Predict the 3D structure of the following.
Amino acid sequence: MKKRLLGVLAIGTALLLLLAGLGFAFPQRFLCVENRDVRADILVVPGGAGGERAKWAAQLFTNGVAPKILLTGAGDYRGHRAILVAAGVPRDVILLEDRSTTTKENAELSAHLLKEQGIKTAIVATSWYHSRRALASFEHFAPDIRFYSCPSHYAYARADWKKAGIGRYVWQEYPKLAGYWLRHGISPF
């Protein structure tokens, strides 16, 4: 019995190491969650990533993907709003959640606001490497809303990571995914 248990443990460990290796070898395939050709009631833009997420949301809005935009995040909403307005997004379609400081808080504090607005469908417009954790967080805190993910592909190619300064953010996503799952019960799958 002990021998069988050790064998199962060895196989489990080998599979876990294989999955980890694949995740690190192909982060775009693991971290990026993308729904193509979707429309929704609102675009949700988590804070962070400089202005890249807001620029992407402005493009999605201009393409008619959603009639409203929710900016979420205490540190970035002013800059993101300025980018949206400069890109032609009317101020009156921009909603704000300006207290959150983490992705978990982005989702948790936005859930009530989205429900209050009668939102049934939402698109999370974030960075490609952040899309799995962001989507899982919003789905966790607002399970009655159908969320989609339409991430920016800014610096998607590994060769562009250094120039864009995102390499460390890509690699930090793995422990953050595990931490959100273990600490908050937010499953990345």
In short: Helices lie at 2-25, 27-31, 52-62, 77-86, 103-116, 131-141, 158-164, 167-184. Residues 2-25 form the longest helix (24 residues). The chain is about 55% helix and 10% strand. The two ends are 32 Å apart (CA to CA).
